[in-house]
Design goal:
- The protein starts with 10 loop residues before the first helix and ends in a 6-residue tail after the last helix.
- It is built from nine helices and no strands.
- With about 200 residues, the protein is an all-alpha fold.
């Protein structure tokens, strides 16, 4: 069945479809090669209809970042809130982030493409803001764990948060090199086990 060439969906639904198309295309081709014409064609819109929803490509790219921010941070906070102990919450956040990448493999490709651009941009600022809030969530969980005496004495909490994020980024980069995210959950579970051993006090009996 051919796509319709008219735009009859409600604005919010159509915008969500356009954002999803950008991320789907990012999973299969270099994000830098994605054109607005290609996005429109992917969902059966005319080029002009696409610009009724996003006046410029830059506006669309910012909307994609906003979607990633809202979706990812909501999942991470929900994961953290589902656990009673902060160390368990850290693991839940680690795995929730991994599951998000598996479900949306175009997201890291899109983000890395934008962050490697030499010029400063609103997108880089948005990503920086998201990363800052991510670190704040980790710091809260690490401080709670420290207050319970679960962490190693004099553990550098800022470094612990950096290691957490860096470990995830390493897993993502390896998955991108393989072109497959299917093995990420099992690898993430093993990597978090090493991270946990590095930061917590092992109780002995």
């Amino acid at each position: 069945m051919p796509y319709a060439t008219t735009d009859r969906q409600p604005t919010q639904a159509r915008q969500a479809e356009i954002i999803a198309a950008v991320l789907a295309l990012s999973a299969s081709q270099g994000p830098g090669t994605i054109t607005t014409q290609g996005i429109a064609a992917a969902i059966g819109l005319t080029h002009g209809a696409l610009f009724k929803h996003f006046p410029t490509k830059a506006a669309l790219w910012l909307a994609v970042i906003d979607w990633v921010d809202a979706q990812l941070m909501a999942r991470l906070h929900a994961a953290a809130d589902s656990c009673d102990h902060p160390v368990a919450a850290l693991r839940a956040v680690f795995m929730a982030h991994t599951d998000f990448v598996v479900a949306h493999p175009g997201v890291p490709r899109f983000l890395f493409n934008e962050l490697q651009q030499p010029e400063d941009s609103p997108i880089k600022h948005r990503v920086g803001d998201m990363l800052g809030r991510y670190r704040q969530l980790l710091q809260v969980l690490l401080k709670r764990a420290a207050a319970l005496g679960a962490l190693r004495p004099r553990l550098d909490l800022d470094a612990a948060a950096t290691l957490f994020i860096g470990s995830l980024q390493g897993l993502v980069m390896q998955a991108m090199l393989r072109g497959d995210t299917a093995d990420m959950p099992s690898a993430a579970s093993a990597v978090f086990g090493l991270y946990r051993s590095a930061i917590i006090v092992e109780l002995t009996t």
